[in-house]
Write a structure and sequence with these properties.
Layout (H helix, E strand, L loop, with lengths): L28 E3 L2 E4 L2 E2 H4 L5 H10 L5 H13 L8 H11 L4 H12 L7 H15 L3 H11 L23 H5 L5 H12 L5 H17 L5 H12 L6 H20 L24 H8 L1
Antiparallel strand pairs: 1-2, 2-3
Length: 292
């Protein structure tokens, strides 16, 4: 990022708010009294475009279509809540319990989320799906090969969400549940169909999901659906954690605030489920409330 004089490639014209938003036209830099984002004065963007627009502007160098904007916002909203069941919330809650500031809880959340068996699975799913579509590989053969070899297909399966009413063995389970087990997936699919989403990656992810549920009762999860959507929009797998972080942080902020009213340092038995107080560090009490 430069800090000296204006480059000729940077925007120097006045912007009429009644016209289309300014397109990227150069590099990002800071000069005395001005900030440029991809060559556009930041003041021309503030109050003119929305946050999703700015996300696309910065990462992809373009603005989203109306459908892309709606799907991206819906996906980010879908990430904003998963109770205390998410493994990455554990570190955040422990940090909050010892009265670390919110930034400490946020860092703990991000560190826990990065593993491939948690939110890091989104990047793995994007990499695998991108390569599958690019090679034009037969999806049925791909699934069969993976199942036969016992190799995980990223973006499918969930420890809680298996069928929307607990009836994975129902004779009509494939039609009823293969895209409806996870409430987030259920709604995103409904929205994508309503908006007539067309994209090879989402189409491939849904095809894999149907085959896996038919064979193993393994449903598509939020990472599988997001991988298809994000790849169809042109995002690189390396940017996957961006969406996880900005989507889940409101949930972490709420948990951090709620923890301030609890007894400090209360998560001393988190290490193993054999610990006497382990039940207090999971959502088991939450499930008991739901049953009553």
């Amino acid at each position: 990022m430069g800090t000296n004089t204006l480059d000729p490639k940077h925007d120097t014209q006045a912007f009429d708010p009644g016209t289309a938003p300014p397109e990227p036209c150069g590099e990002s830099l800071v000069v005395d009294g001005e900030i440029f984002a991809r060559g556009v004065r930041i003041g021309k963007l503030i109050g003119t475009i929305g946050y999703i627009d700015m996300l696309f502007f910065q990462v992809l160098g373009r603005y989203p279509s109306a459908i892309e904007r709606q799907m991206t916002e819906a996906y980010l909203v879908s990430l904003c809540e998963h109770g205390v069941t998410s493994p990455s919330t554990h570190g955040a809650r422990v940090s909050a319990s010892v009265r670390a500031p919110f930034a400490g809880s946020a860092i703990a959340f991000i560190a826990g989320a990065m593993g491939p068996y948690h939110f890091g699975a989104l990047e793995q799913a994007m990499l695998e799906l991108r390569d599958l579509v690019a090679r034009g590989e037969n999806i049925e053969q791909h699934v069969e090969t993976r199942l036969r070899s016992g190799v995980r297909i990223w973006g499918f399966g969930h420890r809680f969400h298996k069928s929307s009413d607990g009836s994975g063995s129902h004779p009509d389970a494939v039609e009823r549940f293969h895209e409806r087990a996870d409430p987030r997936v259920r709604r995103l699919i409904e929205l994508a169909d309503t908006l007539n989403w067309e994209g090879p990656h989402l189409r491939a992810a849904r095809h894999i999901g149907r085959l896996l549920y038919h064979r193993k009762r393994i449903p598509i999860n939020i990472d599988g659906i997001a991988a298809g959507l994000l790849l169809d929009m042109g995002f690189d797998p390396a940017s996957a954690m961006l969406f996880v972080i900005i989507g889940r942080l409101p949930n972490i902020a709420r948990l951090h605030l709620e923890e301030q009213s609890q007894t400090p340092n209360r998560f001393v038995a988190l290490a193993t489920n054999a610990d006497p107080g382990f039940h207090r560090t999971t959502d088991r009490d939450q499930r008991e409330v739901a049953r009553s």
